[in-house]
Specification:
Elements: H1 7-38, H2 41-73
Amino acid sequence: MREYKNFKEIERDLKLLKLQKEIDKEMILLSYNQTKESLSPKRILKSAAGSIFKNALILKGATTILGYIGDKWK
């Protein structure tokens, strides 16, 4: 526990705590808005479509490579 020597120190710490409280509140609001945006249907569909496209490209590339290797072994 901190011991204060005068009221000026107490007032300074109270101001700091008030500012920290405002910063924390803004951080929570920012985090909430980012989460809300990331869970929007548009964002979810865009992310899913990107994943499907990426996986399709990987599968096509793997199939091509494996087919090429399979032809070499014949």
